[in-house]
Design goal:
Blueprint lengths: L8 H13 L5 H36 L6 H8 L2
Length: 78
């Protein structure tokens, strides 16, 4: 289903310029791209939130975990 949105001529002209500057063929496509980026950003933020929550949970359960970088280096040198 299509919807009609009324925007000022000045805003539409700015959107057209922005679309051209980004190599996008239309204002509609520009808006689709922006929406997809917003959704991707939302998903990334949610993923980071979940990682932080897991880190906190692991810290609460096991305490400070030692850095394993030295062990990895030692293992590689064998």
């Amino acid at each position: 289903m299509s919807q009609t949105l009324i925007v000022s001529d000045a805003l539409y002209k700015q959107l057209q310029i922005t679309a051209r500057l980004h190599g996008v063929e239309s204002v509609e496509r520009l808006l689709e791209i922006w929406q997809a980026r917003e959704e991707e950003l939302r998903q990334r933020r949610e993923t980071v939130r979940r990682i932080d929550s897991l880190r906190e949970q692991l810290y609460t359960t096991y305490g400070e975990m030692p850095d394993s970088a030295a062990l990895v280096r030692e293992d590689r040198s064998r």
